[in-house]
Every structure is written in C-alpha cells, then in structure tokens.
Amino acid sequence: MSWKSKQRYINPGDDRVKIGVLSKDADEKPMRHKTWVKFKASFGNVNYFTHTIAGYTVVVGLSYAFKHFTDNTYHQHRKNENATLLPTLTDPLIVVKDTYKGQSVLNFYKPFKTEDELFHMMMFQALEEDGQYKFRTIYSANTMSKVKEVLKATDGNTVYFKYE
Fold this sequence. Notes:
Layout: H1 2-9, H2 19-25, E1 27-28, H3 36-42, E2 48-53, E3 56-61, H4 62-68, H5 85-90, E4 94-100, E5 103-113, E6 118-127, E7 133-140, H6 144-151, E8 158-161
Parallel strand pairs: 1-5, 3-7
Antiparallel strand pairs: 2-3, 4-5, 4-8, 5-6, 6-7
C-alpha cells in the first residue's frame, strides 16, 4: 500500500513531499464546534464513538476528546481544530500501524486546507487490552517530517490508503 502513497506524494528526484498534490487532495477545514453540545451532536450524541477501518476498531471517548483540545500534554490550545477529529477518523488519507513505548498504535493522517493554509492533522491511538484502539491525541503537525514519515511507511505498516 505505502508504495502508492510514496508514488503519489513523494518526489522521487529530491525525496520531498509534493505539497501541490497533497493540497489538491485535502478537504476544506471544517469550522470548529463552539460548544460541547455541538461537538457531541456531530458524533450522533453518543458518549463513545466507535469506528472500524481496515479491520481495526477505534473508540473515542467524546468527553475526553473534547477536553483534550484545551487540556493536553503540551498545554496547546487546539479548540479551533476540534471539528477535524471525526473526518480524520472516518475519512483519513492514510493509516499506519506503529509501536510507541512498546504499545501497538495507529497513526491517522488527513490534510485540510483553508484559502491560504494547509493543515496536517495527525491522530494517535493506543491499543487497549480488549483489542480496540482508544483515542489518545490529535494535533496539527507543524513540520513535514512527521507527514513524510507517515506517507513513506512500509507496506507492512500501512493498513489503509485512501487512493488504493
């Protein structure tokens, strides 16, 4: 799978990300949900949202996720990005399986754009004992190195690519 993402997004001559192609494939960045009620409603008014992609089940605790946009490890204010969670989970560009601190994780990537900016949303899931992946964080990658790493993941680690 990953060779297809490399072919589409990595320039073979200089090994750089083809920003123009990535921008063309990006969705419009959705407007943020201003309240908890609107955020929860976007997921169907459930407390836990479950989605399966490529045979992997991901569970998002909505209360934790909503709070995470303002109270997170790096104390970053991310509330303007809260409407990117659902489309990044349900319609990612690519999903890559990896390990982090000995745990199996899934990294979701989806580009979004505004009139003058391209945003690279990365989402990280940790494997729980019951075999489901649980939402941990979502953030906008501020360097292309993480985006490039995901786009160039090995075929064995790429579990989903939108354009396959």
